[in-house]
What we know:
CATH superfamily: H-NOX domain
Strand content: 15-25%
Radius of gyration: 17 Å
Distance between the termini: 36 Å
CATH topology: H-NOX domain
Structural class: alpha+beta
Number of domains: 1
Helix content: 40-55%
Number of helices: 6
Oligomer: single chain
Amino acid sequence: MIIGEKLDLHTNPKRLVPNVYFQQAFTASRELLGSDGFVAVMKRAEVILPGMGRYLDEKNWPPADTELVVPARHYSALFQAIEEVGGGRAQMVAIGIRTAQMGFEGLGVTMKATLSVLKKLPGFRWRAETVLKAMADDLMNVFPGDREKQAIRVQTDEQKRAILFIDRTGDACHGRNGARAPVCHVYRGGIIGAVKMATGKVPSVKESACMAVGDNACVFEIGFEAEEKDEA
Length: 232
């Protein structure tokens, strides 16, 4: 597996993420954690990064557009707070899956029809790889300069029998260092949700490398075989 050299995006204080990513993350978090849980998370987020407490008021949430306004560290601080308050990996993955669903709900009629057809075609590996490449392409479209740096890419590892989703931006764990294990559970959930929406099957996904640990990229391994049968 060739990850490539480490980019400076993970620690760049000027790194921004699209408003819609932040807005969806807040919406999914409050929905799944409940009001009390969300308040507890935001109080912890304020300790992690002073100023985060203002997001307790929905009026301060960014609009659901692709403008690059929100600092990436704000984005990762939310996930770090959920992790530290005790949401657990399963809860964080569920939040990621929900954000993926929100993304698909916002698609146009034509794209939804395309995904509906894709779900019915044979070959889980091919369908999963197709949607992951589209996901990587969409991510690089909203970040000026990321495409030239090949900050995100998809490749296959026949030995591991997995599709590798390699992200050298580190946005989901922006500014975090010294972690003992990968921390991008919400991102992993987003990949699970995207593949499931496009294939009708739940993929096996693990994060094998993480920039918060000190790796050059956050690497997600998506197994060639799904974990369950087609949806009814």
